[in-house]
TrEMBL record, chains A, B:
Its main location: cytoplasm. It comes from Nibricoccus aquaticus. One of its GO terms (cellular component) is cytoplasm. This is Aspartate--tRNA(Asp/Asn) ligase. Belongs to the class-II aminoacyl-tRNA synthetase family. Type 1 subfamily.
Length: 596, 596
């Protein structure tokens, strides 16, 4: 049996028509001996009726059907009796009076409910083990659709801008100095390995040298990192690179892409151009390089108030070159001891000694530190932080970057507490895009006593800062940019170095990578650059993360058809697994199982 | 400097305009002190003029430019003097009188010429080592464009047919019974491995169980096979699956896709529906399951002529159940001894004892075997094979499949010899599509004394043959289909088994796979099928191969940006490589280098 219509198609305009439908038995109800089956396909649901008074044999056959069985039904479209019309679905005015039935497959009883609410309560491991059932839930079906639509919109956009998609290899060379990578032993070359590509960065720059000019790729990437909630062993990256462009071009191209995606997937117009915020401002105001701008609670620098304070902790921090940052969590004076303790623990995990606070409640300041403050200091704080009754103020006293980071995190936690209390609303679809720009090109790695590239060593310095590459590398800003949405880094990129001599200098003189390592790892790129490399730059962003934001979910596993667990396991197909001795022998390796 | 136009844009309609162009110095010519540079970007070429009489300083600067350097030029569009107009390119009527020059990067001298003809003569290893230069050649640039266009057309087509693209994992579980796979050691699970996905076959069937109904994916796949001319370690597969469909639906969907691709990429209308040919006919007529139908030279069965022959080799073959196949290579009687010997060697490599032939030359048959033929046999041969003077006839006497295969290969070789002699034309753009259908579901593996699936164990039997699954498996035809173009298998697929009991029976009773292996390898699929699996089927085809055919090249390496060599090496970036002891320790493996 084949379908004449899909299950969201039949409306009262089809009354009297002979139709056939195929799909899954979504729900089955018996009303006084008459069997009603909601038949579901990927488009929707249509109610089918089996009446034993009309056809006893057919109704008996239909009685064997269990939920989630696959069936085909042909019959006549009839109006539902008054009072049984379902106005929530397009097919709610009709039902199909069954004349024939084909049972393709009977289903066992699913191990968990397949509706959105029931399924969401289920342990995720169970959902992943039975992913084929989990993916039947309306929410998950929608997520796969959104991902398809978003991906299509991205490809259509870049095609319209004359970018061409070029595939680059997954089997690449090992670069042990970088992030941890997956290795693939070679059978032909005993003792040698490929590494799974962590990103097409080097290949895309090579494509610019090849004269492709406008490249993009939606590429699978692999990183053997410790998996967190929003990480997967393999992830999908939208990777873009173009020649003869500057930062303004990248902003325009990427904003245009996001505009199209948001329009086509959500029918939302996002305003462009995006706000641009230097890294220093992002840290100062939000304590993080990916600020969530859906709410305020901005950080304040109150260092100048405490320059000569009697509160030695603050005074000495300022004297030592540090800063005092503060945040007024408006209306959060009702925080419990437990909540304050939890926040303090987070601050400590970020390197704070504690988390000083002022609770402004019933006309007085409750605080372990306020007794050290002068009246002038109190007045200045009240003025600068606009402290009112009911407010909760937090302080961090430390070096600039650490103080910002501590209060940046405090800000996010405070916002969550306000949301919990109904005092603040943060909507997932309140889209606050921005560019964070002017990152430092290098940061100093205390442990190894050398500079490291903040993003990667191919980023070009800002032109006017290049003169400080030797004398004061920390002062040099990079032509790097991050696209940020609602506290998440959507993507990042940079204008690259295209002159081989400068690239070599950055590798060897600034980053102090030994010349032989530079040669073995990047020698081929430096060589390529001597054959006419154009100025170029680009951006890369995580498709999984973007789809999660579009779907309003916090987990990228909800937008990946077959994700692995946080321990890297495929619970459905069961991997990884031991392999045979023959396989290992062919690959010239053996396993070394650590002793307990 | 940024461009105002691209290098294929300026025509006499722009005379007098001030423009700027960026790109590569394609060629540099000095005519009486005046420097002419062909500036090239991805779109085309524009001639730029530096006249020292107009601006000596600028001309001196331009004189430093070497071919393949990257430059920006601004200037005025002027008409070329009469007699110097190049009518072969759209910009051939104008040139740009340079006013300013920016040199972005000077190029070293490329190690090989970057034109199509010069580059084609270069050793391929050199091209792969300097792939960024090889990809600048017009032919390779076009190939990347064609690949992008074809891929885009495929995605647009499936989207228009309401298929959604779903990504499936590359890191899958090892299934050592199948083709050789790449293994990836797990760091978290000591002693365990992932395998790189050889195809999304199992995931796409699971997606059908999940109710996706219409899935496609352009997926990277990995096989550790011995690399031949048309194989790569990683390749790109267009993978399609749909529910509630039959073979006719698949033919229609896939033909529609190819129609769109050929139209959009080549502006060629290919006629549909395609010819359909049962496997048995393909073997009988062309000696192969992927017939090249651009030329005739069909195989003939001449067994009946030799039933009672005095030529015992033929007679006993027929008596023993074998066949005598023959092919008349019209006009090839001028084959040399060397050519005949080479063809005989090929036949022997396919299991033939020799390659019997008749050379019909100057009114007589020259042949080592014809002396054994009766006049009646000669007359019957002449009649059936339409032997004329100048023809060359080959015979194979063997079991049906072997005889077909030997002459199928002979047919291809003979065609090449006729092409070489100018007696036959085979155009790469003479598109002869067909479906080969009705393959046997199983074939008997003599070595292991059991049946094996001809394609894969998920293929459903043809309904009317299913009754012979137990009694006579060889008689059962599968619902498999191959799409063939000009002697190449473009793709293949099947309608799958969707009933868990039948699938289990095929695994265990027909293919005799031990129950524990079935459980560990396919247990999750059999389980999934008990929860409402719809009837489904699909197709998969190699994108690299299709692009090679579209580009008229015989090597898939010409349509892959960064292919590996036949020894699996990346000659540009240099991989595979040894890795550090630390890396191996983290992955709980060590290498075992075989002794010389």
């Amino acid at each position: 049996m084949k379908s004449s219509h899909h299950c969201a198609q039949l409306t009262p305009s089809a009354l009297g028509a002979s139709v056939s439908l195929v799909g899954w038995a979504d729900s089955i109800r018996d009303h006084g001996g008459i069997l009603f089956i909601d038949l579901r396909d990927r488009k929707g649901i249509t109610q089918v009726k089996f009446d034993p008074h009309v056809n006893a044999e057919l109704a008996a056959q239909a009685a064997q059907i269990k939920p989630e069985s696959v069936i085909g039904v042909s019959g006549k479209v009839v109006a539902r009796p008054e009072g049984t019309v379902n106005k929530n679905i397009p097919t709610g005015g009709i039902e199909v009076d069954a004349i024939a039935l084909e049972i393709f497959n009977i289903s066992d009883t699913p191990p968990f409910p397949l509706d959105d609410i029931g399924g969401d309560k289920v342990n995720e491991d169970l959902r992943l083990t039975y992913r084929y059932l989990d993916l039947r839930r309306p929410k998950m079906r929608k997520n796969l659709q959104v991902r398809h639509k978003a991906t299509k919109a991205i490809r259509d956009y870049f095609d319209s801008q004359e970018f061409i998609e070029v595939e680059t290899p997954a089997l690449f060379k090992s670069t042990p100095e970088g992030a941890r990578e997956y290795l693939v032993p070679s059978r032909i070359h005993a003792g040698q390995f490929y590494a799974l590509s962590q990103s097409p960065q080097q290949f895309k720059q090579i494509l610019m040298v090849a004269g492709v000019e406008r490249y993009f790729q939606i590429a699978r990437c692999f990183r053997d990192e410790d998996l967190r909630a929003d990480r997967q062993m393999e992830f999908t990256q939208v990777d873009v690179e173009a020649s003869f462009i500057d930062r303004e071009d990248v902003y325009r191209i990427f904003e245009g892409m996001l505009k199209k995606v948001w329009k086509e997937v959500l029918d939302v117009d996002i305003p462009t151009p995006f706000l641009r915020m230097p890294f220093v401002d992002a840290m100062n105001r939000f304590g993080v390089d990916k600020p969530d701008m859906r709410f305020g609670l901005e950080l304040q620098d109150v260092s100048s108030i405490f320059t000569n304070s009697a509160f030695k902790v603050f005074q000495s921090t300022v004297a030592g070159g540090g800063v005092i940052k503060a945040i007024n969590a408006k209306g959060l004076a009702d925080m419990t001891q437990g909540e304050i303790k939890a926040l303090e623990d987070i601050a400590k995990s970020l390197g704070a000694k504690g988390l000083a606070f002022i609770k402004s409640e019933n006309g007085e300041w409750k605080s372990p530190i306020v007794k050290f403050f002068s009246d002038a200091e109190k007045a200045a704080l009240t003025e600068q932080l606009k402290i009112e009754d009911g407010d909760m103020v937090f302080f961090a006293a430390a070096g600039w970057e650490k103080a910002c980071a501590i209060l940046g995190r405090t800000r996010l936690e405070a916002a969550q507490l306000l949301v919990k209390r109904g005092k603040m609303t943060i909507r997932h679809d309140d889209w606050k895009f921005l560019w964070v720009i002017e990152f430092p090109l290098m940061s100093f790695d205390e442990e190894n006593n050398r500079y490291v590239a903040t993003h990667h060593p191919f980023t070009a310095p800002v032109a006017e800062d290049a003169q400080y590459l030797d004398s004061d590398p920390k002062r040099v800003r990079g032509q790097h940019y991050d696209a940020v949405l609602n506290g998440m880094e959507l993507g990042g990129g940079s204008i690259r170095i295209h002159q081989p001599a400068i690239q070599k200098k950055v590798f060897e003189d600034v980053l102090k990578i030994p010349a032989d390592v530079v040669e073995s790892r990047f020698g081929y790129m430096l060589k390529a650059f001597t054959y006419g490399a154009p100025p170029h730059g680009g951006i890369a962003f995580g498709l999984d993360r973007m789809c999660a934001l579009l779907c309003g979910t916090t987990s990228i596993r909800d937008v990946i058809a077959f994700p692995k667990t946080q321990k890297g396991q495929d619970l459905m197909a069961q991997s990884p697994t031991p392999v045979t001795a023959k396989q290992l022998k062919e690959l010239h390796i053996q396993t070394v199982i650590p002793q307990e």
